[in-house]
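Tip: read the tokens left to right.
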């Protein structure tokens, strides 16, 4: 049977994507938040595809501008960035949130983030930071698991239980010794988050970093995204920071309601 995007590819392991389009996307999605360049060997290992297939598809993606050749391998191309900037819903949300993120940074001198749910992860749409801010795990365009991030837990706590079940089934992997890695611990944390109206990541994503997050709601009252401020464990006071983050989230929610 022929595959979408062209004739069937018969090479590759049992777990490898089968259609040409799926294989091309699997190459692009091989790049993690901290990856600058990947070699053909890296791409083969991460996708499960044979080197001949990776070489052929990578060459086509380079010709389209989706990948670029670097000094040590391949990197994501500027054409992907340009296409991403055309996504209207995400662009509008980011533009509405940016003044609030900038205010949070000015008030705290720490990183302020905007993210939304993407399956069992959160996808970071914006980040405001400075040279005095602590190094955090989030990057714009990158993903992190919902169960260990403040933005992720803020969204899980006010979404349906299906999202929590999906996260549990995907695995509650430990990123640090403090990551909530059992369903019971996560459930207790999400209940506390729902009661107080904000989420806390206490060194669960990166050691030495604490993050406070709050959800953003659309005009229909449904959660659409979350914001958070992250900083050094010894420098952030939860009781002082939480009201500021919650107020910023309410401000963005109100603007979304007015500008629907």
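Filled-in amino acids:
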């Amino acid at each position: 049977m022929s595959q979408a995007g062209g004739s069937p590819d018969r090479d590759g392991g049992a777990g490898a994507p089968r259609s040409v389009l799926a294989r091309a996307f699997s190459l692009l999605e091989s790049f993690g938040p901290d990856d600058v360049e990947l070699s053909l060997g890296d791409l083969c290992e991460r996708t499960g595809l044979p080197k001949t297939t990776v070489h052929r598809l990578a060459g086509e993606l380079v010709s389209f501008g989706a990948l670029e050749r670097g000094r040590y391998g391949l990197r994501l191309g500027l054409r992907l960035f340009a296409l991403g900037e055309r996504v209207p819903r995400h662009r509008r949300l980011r533009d509405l949130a940016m003044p609030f993120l900038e205010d949070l940074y000015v008030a705290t001198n720490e990183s302020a983030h905007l993210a939304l749910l993407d399956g069992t992860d959160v996808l970071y749409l914006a980040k405001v930071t400075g040279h005095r801010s602590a190094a955090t795990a989030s990057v714009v365009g990158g993903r992190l698991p919902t169960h260990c991030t403040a933005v992720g837990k803020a969204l899980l706590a006010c979404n349906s239980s299906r999202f929590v079940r999906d996260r549990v089934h995907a695995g509650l992997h430990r990123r640090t010794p403090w990551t909530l890695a059992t369903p019971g611990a996560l459930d207790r944390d999400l209940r506390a988050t729902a009661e107080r109206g904000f989420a806390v990541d206490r060194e669960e994503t990166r050691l030495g970093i604490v993050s406070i997050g709050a959800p953003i709601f659309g005009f229909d009252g449904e959660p659409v995204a979350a914001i958070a401020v992250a900083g050094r464990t010894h420098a952030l006071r939860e009781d002082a920071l939480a009201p500021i983050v919650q107020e910023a989230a309410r401000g963005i929610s109100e603007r979304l309601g007015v500008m629907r």
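Confidence is low (pLDDT under 50) at residues 1-10. The chain is about 45% helix and 20% strand.
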